[in-house]
Amino acid sequence: NMDFLSHYRPQTNVVRRPTQKGGQGYSLTGHHEIMLPLLAAAVIEEIG
Question: Which residues of 23-48 are buried (b: 16+ CB within 10 A; e: fewer)?
Fold first, then answer.
């Protein structure tokens, strides 16, 4: 979930509910023009 404002429905349907049987959900709050490049850099760094 990358909503700038946190709301109950996306938090439940996107972050919490799909992970009930395993996995992990993330909620990132911030400006997309900053958060997306940071997320991409983190993924690239992790996969090598």
Answer: eeeeeeeeeeeeeeeeeeeeeeeeee
